[in-house]
Design goal:
The protein has helices at 2-30, 40-49, 57-71, 121-129, 154-162, 189-196; strands at 77-81, 92-96, 105-112, 142-148, 167-176, 179-187, 199-206, 215-222, 225-226. The protein is α+β, with helices and mostly antiparallel strands. The protein has a six-stranded mixed β-sheet with strand order 1-2-3-4-5-6. A three-stranded antiparallel β-sheet has the order 7-8-9. The chain is globular and about 45 Å long. Mean pLDDT is 83; it is low at 5-30 and 232-238.
Length: 238
Amino acid sequence: MIRQQNRLLTRVCQVAALNYETRCYSTARSCSASPTHNSLQTFLTHAQSTNLSPTSTVYIGTYYEYLCLSTLRRLSFNLTRTGGRSDRGIDLLGHWTIPSLPFPLRVLVQCKALKAKTGPETIRELEGMFAGAPVGWRGENIVGVLCAKREATKGVREAVRRSAAPVIWIMVEDLGQGRGKVRQMLWNQTVSQLGAEGVGVGVRYLPGAEGKEVEKEVGLTWKGEAWDPHGELLREEG
């Protein structure tokens, strides 16, 4: 019964958010960074046709931005890439739809494609990103999201907790072949106060590539029950 209610709630949230997202869609698209690619696949095609080196900072950064964009869809983020020379620190922007709200939260995303662990200074950079937000993503109730390849250190976790801004940290691991996995997701009380009360994290399962074993990743929960924003049932651990 609870799972059926969660399915129904998911559909209600999707319908309620549709008009809101449609109004904001043209603004987000106008911020799109490149006329030559708008997804990971089209970027890889572009990189091959222009002989862009996979070891270049442009390739590494752009690849990770698109990887985060596609991976975060499973957490109910609807994002557009904005990264570029004049991005003011904003790599992605869009919305986060959660079952506790009748409308999606607006989000600004930074993607850190660094192999080394990042420190608390990245949260301060994230806080400064709000000042450069485009029209439609300014003012109150805007959530800052930081995606990184490594787990949050103790200093980062403390910086997230202390931040007065609504901040989310997400670890997105690159599995190769254009596949990403969410390994960690945490947010502060300010995000909860915007409407994320009742939303939590749990474990979901992904099919492995080329016949390999299934992959575990972080997924969303709603009031303690596994919740999939696309209306599918999740297997629960245990």
